[in-house]
Amino acid sequence: MKITILGSGDAFGSGGRFNTCLLVEAAGERMLLDCGSSSMVALNKADVARNPISSLLFTHFHGDHFGALPAFLLDAQFVSRRNEPLTIAGPAGIEHRAWHALEADFPGASANPWRFPIRFIEVTPAAPAMLAGLAVTAFPMVHDERAGPCQGYRLARDGKVFAFSGDTAWSDELITLAAGANVLLVECYNYDRPLANHLDYKTLAARRGDLATPRIVLTHMGPGMLAYSGPLPEERAHDGLVIVP
């Protein structure tokens, strides 16, 4: 399993970073984990071919994680001229949210005679799934239920586990999400100012001993976190970082 972070930024592109988008490769298959609003630019900049991507998996429905789906679909239809099936997966309501987003961005586009089959899968804590050769398990996170359900995921294959929090404040579900994972990619928006719906570094550091994973990588960093230049025991993500669990 290999994860390339195409976008490590927050909703506002702080630090010039692209919105959240992870390219996950395993057993010859490719999947995008989140596809935020700037992700088509990120994909093109990294010269990632879109047609070999078999699945898109979303943590929640905020634009910086979900917003490029309409452009991805229309690119597949008119630019890359996709013929291969595409699976779109995510929390409960994924199909309704996908078509609603497409109609909001490109009115009438959902009526296209699609060149390729589209399949929707709801992945929930009660309903894990196999996507792109990976066993995917969902965990409830604490972020913004208006854009949810908001979820983190464990991706597993060949005894390796990659865990991703999506957006969340501290929740004891993070302990379960991280337990035994080879790597935890976790949002860390602020350095020392707690927010109701995001994680800050001081809270994360205080609970580090509860997270049973040897490697933590911080992502989705806002201005305050990016401004902190002191040493940290955790890694800080950047666009282009490659993680091999």
Explain the overall architecture.
The protein is built from seven helices and 14 strands. By secondary structure, it is α/β, with parallel strands linked by helices. The protein has one domain (2-243): Ribonuclease Z/Hydroxyacylglutathione hydrolase-like (Metallo-beta-lactamase, Chain A, 4-Layer Sandwich). α3 (69-78) crosses α4. The chain starts with a strand and ends with a strand. The relative contact order is 0.16.
In short:
The chain is α/β, with parallel strands linked by helices and 245 residues long. It is 20% helix and 28% strand. Helix 5 (173-178) links the parallel strand 10 and strand 11.
Sequence-ordered SSE layout with sheet pairings:
Layout: E1 2-7, E2 21-26, E3 29-35, H1 39-45, E4 53-57, H2 63-66, H3 69-78, E5 86-90, H4 94-105, E6 118-122, E7 129-131, E8 134-140, E9 151-157, E10 160-164, H5 173-178, E11 183-187, H6 201-206, E12 216-219, H7 223-227, E13 235-236, E14 242-243
Parallel strand pairs: 3-4, 4-5, 5-6, 10-11, 11-12, 12-13
Antiparallel strand pairs: 1-2, 1-14, 2-3, 7-8, 8-9, 9-10
